């Protein structure tokens, strides 16, 4: 019999209380004591294990199993994504995309800015993409002589949506691994969720945000002058001085989109080709995220590397440098996996499953609520995604591949809700755009909430149609 079908017990009450206290410990350690998230999650996980009644000699093994289970899959993909992002930036490929797409009528700039952010955000973490895009946003604002938020919000929306919904970003990948979802199907459905979320929270909300906070480019002077400037006072280019040429727009797009195409081909094969088809094993192999991203990195070593003038030793150095900034992210994701495993082994997931069955709450809504609460408490979308996925995992056992993917996306939507003062992204946006705390809440925080709500609405619509 499924454990979730068993009667409610005192142990179920105990593990729910313990889980709440464990999450509170993590929040207090991160927000008040200023602990690194890795240490906070590790301490919280050990507390949950002990207080849930797991045998003492099994607690560290449970934690290690959770860490290894997540990092064994996600860690490699995060590393490959970082390599691709580093080569994109240093080769000048990001500049090429921006220069090409910013041509045309000023009225189309908000939409183009969202598109640029979405393209650049495919292989990059939010913070890196933000640093790259800010000078571009300000250059565009100078061109049109308009408010910064009119173009800044679409760029932020594009980056944030990719971070919350689309592999190979850490949160979605971790949830896919924990819930045993199909990467290709999640990617395909994630794009369907991402498009309306970017449109509503980006160019459309950007109009309102620009009226609420009508600052110009001068308000974000720090962001522009923090980088280089050319002789005419415009923001400098991100291209590395070792590069003698810039990759073409076509080659840049082919390189960036190649892993998505490979994964989408695999998703199409999963849906339309029978399991015994002769070509299925090949498509499953080339569409696996590890191969798809490895292929993109190897392609980038040519298109963003040797073809722009980087020598082999320079390429090797850049690949090594790309790994340094992601060490913290990888260990936070790993510790989140350990915390998740402690919740699972202690029985928290089963208790929540019993509540969901008794109240008939949709597992998609439950995943969104749990992720949203953890996001509000900890400020970390990745921590919220990993933890929520572990908590609702027992409810995912009987779901179809499509609904498993939708559960990943519902959790991703919840993990983006209302970023505020406990989120590092909140302060990055505030400082780069020269905003006050109140202005950041009215623009960035509201934008994140719109993404979260629109994302959930589209997920629920797709759940009815699929």
From TrEMBL:
Annotated Gene Ontology MF terms? gluconate transmembrane transporter activity
Q: Which domain of life is it from?
A: Bacteria
A GO cellular-component term linked to this record: plasma membrane
Q: What name goes with this protein? A: Gluconate transporter
Q: How does it sit in the membrane?
A: Multi-pass membrane protein
Q: Where does the protein end up?
A: Cell membrane
The Swiss-Prot or TrEMBL record describes its family as follows: Belongs to the GntP permease family.
Claim: Membrane is one of the keywords in the record: yes
According to its UniProt record, where is this protein mainly located? membrane
Keywords, A to Z, come to:
Cell membrane, Membrane, Transmembrane, Transmembrane helix, Transport
Q: Which InterPro entries match?
A: Glcn_transporter (IPR003474)
Q: Among its keywords, does the record have Nucleotide-binding? A: no
């Amino acid at each position: 019999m499924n454990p979730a079908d068993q009667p409610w017990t005192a142990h179920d009450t105990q593990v729910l209380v313990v889980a709440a206290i464990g999450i509170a410990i993590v929040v207090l350690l991160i927000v008040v004591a200023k602990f690194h998230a890795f240490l906070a999650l590790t301490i919280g996980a050990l507390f949950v294990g002990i207080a849930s009644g797991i045998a003492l000699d099994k607690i560290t093994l449970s934690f290690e199993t959770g860490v290894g289970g997540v990092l064994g899959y996600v860690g490699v993909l995060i590393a490959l994504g970082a390599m691709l992002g580093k080569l994109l930036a240093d080769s000048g490929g990001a500049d090429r995309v921006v220069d090409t797409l910013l041509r045309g009528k000023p009225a189309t700039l908000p939409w183009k800015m969202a598109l640029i952010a979405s393209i650049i955000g495919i292989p990059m973490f939010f913070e890196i993409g933000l640093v790259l895009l800010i000078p571009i946003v300000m250059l565009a604002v100078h061109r049109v002589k308009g408010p910064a938020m009119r173009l800044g919000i679409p760029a932020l929306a594009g980056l944030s949506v990719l971070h919350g919904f689309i592999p190979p970003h850490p949160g979605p990948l971790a949830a896919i691994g924990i819930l045993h979802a199909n990467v290709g199907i999640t990617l395909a459905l994630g794009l369907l969720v991402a498009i309306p979320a970017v449109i509503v929270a980006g160019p459309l909300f950007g109009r309102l945000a620009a009226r609420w906070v009508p600052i110009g480019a001068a308000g974000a002077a720090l962001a522009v002058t923090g980088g280089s400037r050319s002789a005419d006072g415009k923001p400098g280019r991100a291209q590395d001085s070792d590069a003698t040429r810039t990759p073409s727009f076509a080659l840049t797009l082919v390189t960036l989109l190649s892993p998505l195409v490979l994964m989408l081909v695999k998703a199409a094969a999963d849906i339309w080709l029978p399991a015994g088809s002769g070509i299925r094993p090949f498509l499953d192999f080339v569409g696996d995220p590890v191969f798809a991203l490895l292929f993109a990195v190897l392609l980038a070593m040519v298109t963003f590397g040797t073809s722009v003038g980087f020598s082999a030793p320079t390429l090797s150095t850049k690949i090594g440098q790309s790994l340094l900034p992601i060490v913290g992210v990888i260990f936070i994701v790993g510790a989140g996996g350990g915390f998740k495993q402690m919740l699972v082994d202690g029985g928290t997931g089963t208790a929540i499953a019993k509540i969901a069955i008794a109240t008939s709450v949709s597992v998609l809504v439950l995943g969104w609520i749990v992720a949203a609460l953890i996001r509000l408490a900890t400020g970390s979308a990745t921590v919220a995604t990993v933890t929520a996925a572990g908590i609702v995992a027992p409810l995912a056992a009987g779901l179809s591949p499509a609904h498993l993917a939708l559960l990943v996306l519902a959790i991703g939507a919840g993990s983006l809700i209302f970023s505020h003062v406990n989120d590092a992204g909140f302060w990055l946006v505030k400082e780069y755009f020269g905003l006050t705390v109140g202005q950041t809440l009215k623009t960035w925080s509201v934008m994140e909430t719109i993404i979260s709500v629109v994302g959930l609405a589209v997920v629920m619509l797709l759940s009815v149609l699929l």
